[in-house]
Design brief:
By secondary structure, this protein is α+β, with helices and mostly antiparallel strands. Among the domains are: 92 residues, no CATH class; 124 residues, L,D-transpeptidase catalytic domain-like (Beta Barrel). The chain has 14 helices and 17 strands. It has a nine-stranded mixed sheet with strand order 11-10-9-17-13-14-15-16-12, with helices on both faces. Helix 1 packs across helix 5.
Amino acid sequence: MMFLKKNGMKTLRTICFCVVGLVLEGCDNEVATEINLPTDSNMQLSIVSSVMQGGKIADSQLAKAFEKKQEREILLENSRKTSNANVEDSIESNLLTKNSVPIEEINRTKSQNIQSILNDSKQLLISANGLTNIDNYHHNFPVKSSLRPNVSQQFLGVNEIEQRLMEALPEIEYHTNELSEFAQEVNNANWFEGVELNSATITKIQALLNWHNHSVGAVDGKFSANTIKAMQAFQKARGIRPTKTMNAITWDFLTIDNKIMQRPVLVQYKLKKEDVTIPRYYPRSQYKSIIEGIAEKFHMSRAMLYRLNPNTKLKVGNTITVYNPGQPNSRPVHRVVIYKKKNLLVAYDENDIVIASYPTTVGFKSPSGSYKVANRVLNPVYNSDFKNKANTIPPGPNNPVGLVWMGLSKPSFGIHGSPMPEMISRQRSHGCVRLTNWDALSLYGVMKHGAKVDFKNN
C-alpha cells in the first residue's frame, strides 16, 4: 500500500511497491488482502471516521458513491472535521447507553469495535481504490480570453481538462532571437528522399512526432528505437504501413498542418531562479543537478542540452537554447492500450480513435486483461511500507513514481512517472507502467477517471 499526502490532507491510495535501482526499478505485485494499515493515528482516524459515519458500505453503495462526486466530497469533509476524541467518545457513549456493564468490558468492547471498523475498512479501500480523490483537480485557474504568442504549454482553462493541464504543466515563454546556426538549421529542416538523415533533420522529425502527440521520449537528435516506435504509431493512426525509415507519405502527413510547421523547434529561453535552484528539502526526491532539471523541463536529453549550450553557464538571467515542447494533447482519453512487448502506451478518445502514444517501460510482472483507472494523483508521496516512516519518500521529480500516479482497479498496479526519463523503454519494471515525467503529466491532464486500460502482449 502507499499513502499519498496532498495539500495537507492525507488520503489512502492503493499503489504498487517499487523496487528502485540504478537501472532496474519497478513495481511488485502485492496481495490485496495483505494490507498493512498505517500506524499514523491521523490516518487511522480518517479511516475510522469514514466508516463510523457510513457504516459498512455495501458494494452497491460503493458503486453509487463513485457516481456521486458530491457525496464523496461530503464524506471527505466529515472525515477531516472529526477528531479522534469525538470518535472514541461516540463509541463509548453508545456503549454506555445500550449496556450497563463494567468499565473493563466497555473498554474491551470499544477496542473490538475500533478494530472491527478498521478491518471492515480494508475491503472498503480495496473496492473503492481512490474513492476520495477521483474527479477533482486542486486549483481553479482564471479562465483566459486568449492565448499569448511565443508561449508553450498554455491553455485557456475553459474546462476541467485544461484546468488539470494548467496545474500539471508550466507555461514556457520563449523567443527566437539570435539562434545559433544549428538551431536555425533544425527549424528550417526538410526531409528529402534519398538524402541521409542528419541530426538537424532528425530533431525536426522528433519535434513533429511530438507535436502530433506521438511522444519520442527525450528529444536527443537521434533516430532511436523510441523515435521509430513513435513514427510507427503515427503511421498506423493515419493508415500508413509502418516502416523503420522515413518515407514521402509519412513526411507529407507530418507536415500537412501549416500551424505546426510554423512552430520553431529550437528556441531561446531566459533562465529563472526556479530553473537553477534545487530545493534543499526532500533531497531524495529532487533533481541531482541543475542540468537534469532543465533538460526534463524541456523534454530533452542532458547531452542535447549541453550540445546546444556548450559555453553558457546555467544561472539566472542567462539565455539558453532549448527544445520547444509545444502543446500537448488536450482531448479526453477514454481508453489506453499498453503493448507490453513494444513498451508502448496508445491512447484513444470516446470514439476509440487513436489520439496519442507514449513510450513506456512495462514490467515482466505486468498484468494481462482489462482494468480501469481508479485514481489520479499529482505529486504523490511514496512508501512501500508505512510501518517504517523512515522509508517515506516525499513528492518530487525523482520520487520512485515520479510526479504522477494513476492507480488501476487492479490493486498495486498503476501508470506513473519516472526519475530516469532517458531510460524509458531501456530498463525493466516489476509490473507498473512507467512514462517520462512530462508524458505522465500530460496524460494525467486528459485521462478520464474510469478510463479502460487494456494490457496486450503483442
